[in-house]
Amino acid sequence: MSDTRVHARGGRLQMPRSRGAASGFLLILLGAWGALIPFVGTYLDFAFTPEQAWTWTVGRGWLEVLPGAVAAAGGLLLLVSGNRASAMLGGWLAVIAGAWFVVGRSLTGLLNVGDAGTPVAVVEAKRVALELAYFYGLGALIMFLGAVALGRISVRSVRDVEFIDAPVAAEAHAAQPQPSDEVTEIQPAGEGRHRGWSGMFGRRHTHAH
Predict the structure, then answer these.
(1) What's residue 69's pLDDT?
(2) Does residue 56 sit in helix, strand or coil?
(3) Structure confidence by residue, pLDDT tens digits, 29-87
(4) Residue 181: which pLDDT band, with cuts at 50, 70 and 90?
(5) Alpha helix ranges (H) inside 81-135
(6) Helices 84-103 and 66-80, interaxial angle, to 10°?
(7) CA triplet 99, 100, 103: central angle to 5 degrees?
(8) Under 8 Å CB-to-CB from 102, ≥6 apart: which residues?
(9) How far from the centroid of its chain's Cα atoms is residue 62's Cα?
């Protein structure tokens, strides 16, 4: 009996799309938050300077919009991909984006990518909340979700093997000849021979005189 599993081309890269769907969905939401909050935070009284809605700055572009868009793109790959390689790419994009949210502000002077501003807060608690929601906490959460997705994708479970084998087994079964539904009448062994001899010599009729 041949093993049909080896015939699945690229089967090791296939996986159920649900494997990274939850992490991908959350990453899309977090990436959208990171990219849009600097432009709408003023409406919520939760902003960095300049405290103006929909105002573009170089710092916002490099430090918030760019990593937010990358995180959302990685989440989208995780959400829709049924291929292990593209899903892992999405996970790594999320990890890189989260790391940039965390360390990007400390590298602004070195890279000359502008400044994200300062928290608009009177009390220390609000300043900490702004720092976490815009950068450090957001980035750490994105990195965590990306790492979890990478861990789930890198492991081939029994469910993955069954998912790969199912269409191959169905195709092999369809290729096999199917038994016919026609019913063939089977005659007794001696019936054909008896009729043959009768037809050859004719049927004799005995008449009583």
Answers:
(1) 98
(2) coil
(3) 999 999 999 999 999 999 999 989 999 999 999 999 999 999 999 999 999 998 999 99
(4) low
(5) 84-103, 108-111, 124-134
(6) 160
(7) 85
(8) 135, 136, 139, 140, 143
(9) 28
Alpha-carbon gap, residue 156 to 71, rounded angstroms: 25
Q: Model confidence at 175, in pLDDT bands (50, 70, 90)?
A: low
Cα–Cα distance, 157 to 162 (Å, whole number): 9
Provide the strand spans (E) within the chain. none
Q: Is 209 helix (H, G, I), strand (E, B) or coil?
A: coil
Give one word for 153, left, alpha or beta, with left for phi > 0 and alpha for psi -120 to 50. alpha
Give domain limits for the chain: 13-157
Sort 47 into a burial class: Cβ within 10 Å, 0-12 / 13-18 / 19+: buried
- 50-138-92 Cα angle (round to 5): 120
pTM of the model: 0.72
Residue 26: alpha-carbon gap to chain centroid: 13
